[in-house]
Amino acid sequence: MLSRIAEHLYWMARYLERSEDMARLINATTLLLLDLPPKAEFGWDILLRIAGIAELYETRYGNLDEQRIMGFLIADERNPSAIVSCIHQARENSRTFREILPSEFWERLNSLFLFVRDYASASIGNRHDRYAFLSEVIARRHALVGLLVGTMSQDAAYQFVKLGRNMERADMTTRIVDVTTAVILPQRDKLQATLSESLWIGVLRAMSAFEMYRRHVSVEVRGNEVVEFLIRDRKFPRTVYHCLGEMEVALATLPANSAAQGALRRGRKRLDQLDLADLNSAVLHEYLDHLQQDLGSIHRVIHRQYFDPLHRDGSTEDAVARGLADESPGPLATTQFQQHAAF
Amino acid sequence: MDLLSEYYSHQTAYDELINTERQTRPVAQTLISHLAHLGIDTIKARRQAAEAAILAMGITFTVYTEAGNIDRAWPFDVVPRMLAYNEWQRIEAGLKQRVRALNCFIDDLYNAQSIVNDGVFPRAVLKSSRNFRAICRGVHPPLGVWAHICGSDLVRDSDGTIYVLEDNLRVPSGVSYMLENRQIMKRLFPELFQICKPLPIDDYTSRLYDTLAAISPRARSRPIIVVLTPGIYNSAYFEHSYLAQQMGAFLVEGTDLFVGRDDIVYLKTVSGPQRVDVIYRRIDDDYLDPEVFRSDSVLGVRGLMRAWIKGTVAIANAPGAGVADDKVVYAFVPDMIRYYLNEEPILPNVPTYLCMREEDRAYVLEHLDELVIKPTNESGGYGMLIGPRATPEERHRFAQRIQEDPRNYIAQPTLALSTAPTLVGDRLEPRHIDLRPFILQADELYVTTGGLTRVAMQSGSLIVNSSQGGGSKDTWIVDLGDLPCFPA
Questions:
Q1: Which of A30, A51, B130, B424 is the most interior residue, by most CB within 10 Å?
Q2: What is the mean pLDDT of residues B23-38?
Q3: For residue B256, how many other CB atoms are within 10 A of its CB?
Q4: Does a structural domain hold residue B434?
């Protein structure tokens, strides 16, 4: 399989996952705000911090008001993590391999693109319309995943889609946990404790994990247990542990996978090492930082091994030790030039 | 015969299916009587089905407009164009002869240049050739073949003579549409296939594969073949992906390939670099290798020419083959056939005036209102002047251009292109057509059975190019035996 095609499949899956995650986060945060006491020190900026685009926002808008932040996260094409941008990029990445995926996939992705293009801006203004819009994005994205799971041969192309989806999902889960713990871990008073529970419920809801947490962990929602669940649960599909496991399964069928499997094993080992008994903010933050770096190196190994065969032998060592967030804007279709050949 | 009652009044040129005595030509007898039997409503219903099939099969081509690039459904007419096998055999032989001579010519130009030294081909034309690639001097591609895939345009004039209008030796397209047209017809008129028995065409992609495999530098049972496309925004992208798919080849863009320090071309795959044996390129020379040609090209592969010259990879059509894709060179093809093959040309050229020749130019400037003027290196029917239909201002402008750059223009008499019955609205009307067969040459020569018939969809128009609104038809070669079979 061509490296270019594999890379485009991987990034298409990441962008689609990111668009859904963003839609979930915004919806859950909106619901959460309705429950918070008026004095709670919590604002929309948490979303910017989770997505790692607070600085980008700052340079562009400055003021942290709901309207602008929503516009930035949903409809601003200059923000590479905005929902419109993610879906646009997913569509562009998929244009060159229409024959590799089931033909229905392209049609549905294209129609999601058209839907988002037409309705994104109008959804920013009021919470009701926004909720409807974001729910539709989530539902349509689910249909896309279901289509591939239900109709696509589990060939190499499928595995790259799976790698991209789980990489993005694990990344998003660690970000959410990291930012949330930074916001609420110091539990000074009663208000803070109540706030804490609400926030963690919000987090679980954002990941559609609330019911599963209740069933499999506890009726009470406590910070360290939620962190434990989201990071290490073996069975819930959005946990870091589960995502890494899915990537391992995907990689097992791909050629020359030893370096990538090694990076994955290191990541899993770190998951096992965490002692959640005496959780404190600084330790957890440092730990999640390492986890992010692990994801970053897994990504780089996959990139070097499969997408960039020229640099694979290490002759041109990729010296850039960037965090995953910096690498986010992956390749658009590399073909955005006009044609030249004659007909 | 209701179906054709109005047809005759529109008939102005040689018609492929109906003769001047209002009789159906033998080759079309069964077709026309079957269509008459079906009746116009059924034919219209089949056209609708054809359009639905084209949409469903995703057969598109891209048109450039100011509003952006649009993928259009392939325009298709349901009435096939018919040719008798005995006539076709002569055409086929003529095309093979031409391509053989053209390949001798290209090989000669890049090596001994004996045709120039012997004074048969003017040195001045060679010197001013825009598509001559000096870097190809001294290269000996496998089997001495440069133009492996050629699409020649044929037209029939009012007296019934078939002329070669031009030979496309760079990146000729259309063959996928020829194949898809046949698929659609099989779906729509299966019963007609039984009674008319057109000869099959669907071995083309296998023969193309054989042709490409034959020039592989490595002897392997399955050489690695790639189709090199400029990408999804190219007008013929559908064809590139179709051919790659049908041959089981990789469809690649320039960035999918690289040339190693060993001057070998590699494919970037998830299993690592994989050596490439043959490149069927669908991008022009100019964009092939930024190291040698246009340095700003992002479509090509740096170092590709090094690899090709060294012989580690084969390229079809070879770089530099376009030197023969020049309308001035075209005028010399009959001479080439005599010079290299020592044969008389089987198929005639359209009489051609070279504006670079003083007496030809004087004649052309005198007779602008009778002639078609063509720039020598354009394709797609662009930049032409159709004298009889041009305004005096347009003719004046062209006269100036010819005087400024005579090498760049040729002129030909306006042919009365033959017509064929075409479904227009509620009835059949004559529309002008041409024919593009595809010729393959490597260790063997092969000509498609028929070719892509292109149709000028506007009444009276001579412009058949799909990029300019032309349509297409399936082309049926039918074997009538020795005798024309008129109805009892």
A1: A51
A2: 91
A3: 22
A4: no
Measure in Å the smallest separation between the Cα of B267 and chain A Cα atoms. Answer: 8
Residues in chain B with CB shorter than 8 Å from the CB of A95 are: 232
Is the domain of B246 the same as that of B97?
A: yes
Q: With contacts defined as CB-CB under 8 Å, which chain B residues touch A334?
A: 253, 255
Instruction: Establish if B241 belongs to a structural domain.
Output: yes
Among B454, B455, B451, B467, smallest CA distance to B431 is for: B455
Q: How far apart are CA A339 and CA A88, in angstroms?
A: 21
Task: Please say if the pLDDT value at position B241 is more than 80.
Answer: yes
Which structure tokens are listed for B419? Answer: 């017509």
Q: Does residue B24 belong to any structural domain of this protein?
A: no
CA distance A255 to chain B (A): 6
Domain CATH number, residue B358: 3.30.1490.270
Q: Within this chain, do residues B266 and B320 fall inside the same structural domain, yes or no? A: yes
Rounded-to-integer distance, Cα B297 and Cα B284, Å: 11
Q: Which of B287, B319, B341 is the last residue of a domain?
A: B341
**Number of structural domains found in chain B:** 2
Q: How far is B297 from chain A (nearest CA, A)?
A: 10
Q: For position A286, what pLDDT does the model report?
A: 87
B383-395 pLDDT, tens digit per residue, is 888 888 899 999 9
Rounded to whole angstroms, how far apart are CA atoms B244 and B251?
6
Could you count the other beta carbons within 10 Å of the beta carbon of residue B19?
A: 15
Over range B131-157, report the average pLDDT.
Answer: 96
pLDDT (mean) for A310-333 = 37
Domain boundary among B296, B316, B341: B341
Reported as a pLDDT band with limits 50, 70 and 90, residue A315 is very low
Q: How far is A336 from chain B (nearest CA, A)?
A: 8
Same domain membership, residue B229 and residue B113 = yes
> What are the residues of chain A with a beta carbon less than 8 Å away from any beta carbon of chain B?
1-4, 6, 95-96, 99, 103, 156, 160, 254-256, 305-310, 312, 333-343
Residues near A253 by beta carbon (within 8 Å), at least 6 away in sequence = A154, A156, A159
Q: Considering only alpha carbons, which residue of chain A is nearest residue B271?
A: A255
On whether both B257 and B227 belong to a single domain, the answer is yes
Residue with tokens 């201002």: B393
Could you tell me the CATH number of the domain that includes residue B100? 3.40.50.11290
Q: How many residue contacts between A and B have a Cβ separation below 8 Å?
A: 95
Report pLDDT digits (tens) over B92-131: 999 999 999 999 999 999 999 999 999 999 999 999 888 9
Tell me if residue A316 falls in helix, strand or coil: coil
For residues A125 and A131, which has the higher predicted lDDT (pLDDT)? A131
Model confidence band, residue B380 (pLDDT cutoffs 50, 70, 90): low
Q: What is the pLDDT of residue A190?
A: 64
The torsion of the CA quartet B200, B419, B149, B91, rounded to 10 degrees, works out to: 70
| Range list of β-strands (E), A57-184 | none
Give B410-425 pLDDT, tens digit per residue: 999 988 899 999 999 8
Q: Which pTM was predicted?
A: 0.82
- Nearest by CB to B235, which of A4, A308, A339? A339
**Residue B97's CB: how many other CB atoms inside 10 A?**
19
Residue B366 lies in a domain: yes
- Determine the Cα–Cα distance for residues B133 and B278; give it in Å rounded to an integer: 20
Chain B residue numbers touching A103 (CB-CB < 8 A): 58
Structural domain span for residue B332: 87-147+198-341
- Shared domain check, B381 and B303: no
- Does B204 share its domain with B337? yes
